[in-house]
Structures are given as C-alpha cells and as structure tokens.
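Show me any protein, keeping tokens residue-aligned.
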Amino acid sequence: MLSPIATPRNRKAATKACLATGPVPVHVPVTMTEIDDIPDMPALRAEIDALDAELIALLARRRALIDRAARIKKAAELPARIGWRVEQVVANARRHAAEQGLDPELIEAIWRQLVEAAIAQEDRHLKGDEE
C-alpha cells in the first residue's frame, strides 16, 4: 500500500502511515532484460506511472522524517539549516547518482530544491506554524 501524500489536511495521518509502512516495495523491472521485455508503449507507460507513484510515496516518507527531525531540532534548540549537513546530503546524492549512471549535476540541482523545501518545512515547525 502506498503512503498518502502529505497535504496540510492529512499530513499527520500521512506521517503516521509513512512511518508505519516502512520501505516502499518496488514493483518495476529491475534489470535491463526485464525492461527490454516490456512489449509496447502502454505497458511501458504503466511501469513509469507505477514508478512515479513509488517515488511520491518515498517523498511522503521523507517528509514524515523531516517532520520528526523538526521536532527533535526544536527540543534540542537546533536551527532548521545546518550547513554541513546540507552539503553532506547533496554530496551523498551526487555519489549515489554517479553510482547509478545518472548525471550528478542534475541530481544535485534536484536535491538542493528538495533540501531547501525540507529546511522550509522544518523552519515552519520551529516557528510553531506546522500547517
């Protein structure tokens, strides 16, 4: 079961669901041979759509983890932005991208946006504006 997308209306339920579900199962072909066996565009599009849904579920789980980080940071009186951690997260993403044959520059750009959104999310929690 995929986790619900966290919106202001259902974010608390989504957070609990995301943490409870654990890793999202992967349903797409994992080898080039299996990918090459996809017979036509409708089947290929279905695989891409399924993968997109899994990516969204993973992002919802990440959001739940960021909510938890914000609560921990608030209790420890830490700021939302911790510069060395931002750079560590981006470096990890670049490394993983290169290992998977993806463009590290593209992944860095995407990850920086993801991290900035997470920092804004944490900042809202730290200021008491959780919705």
